[in-house]
Sequence to fold (170 residues):
Amino acid sequence: MNGKHLLVGVLLFTGIFSCNSKKEAPKMVNIGILTQKVAAFAGNNHTAKKDRRFRFDSVDLNDDGKKEVLVGIPNMYFCGSGGCTFFLLDDRLEVIQKFTVSDVPFKVLKTKHNGWHDLVIKSGRKSHFMLHNGDHYPVNPSISPLWDENGEVLEIIFETYYKGMKTYNY
Fold:
């Protein structure tokens, strides 16, 4: 009897822990590597050392089980009256693209185009609907259509960008 109970227990244990979803568990972002990458693509741009800082958030935009990373650099070189430049990185922390003239928060919608979730990004205090074209999202949200508030919001990125989100130096 004990052998049967042990076998059933092992089968149940194995079944429980091997029946996970198809998606990988999200990887933690290595802050040291991310900081090096940000320093490489942001440069110093004649920016005072105290202004060389960034914030980031992550989300799986293409449902591949790997989180993309969005990086914002809140300084005068990357921000202006219409918004800031944000960088979208893949799970290896390589730059996929940038978004210019953008403001937070970013909204990830449930709907998708070309395998990537639709985004809503503010620019000039207006929310714009961003569709992936199979290669990238539009770089400048202000040239995309205004969002008519249709579509279910799946996730909000950079929700606390201006209110206590951790800042890192590069």
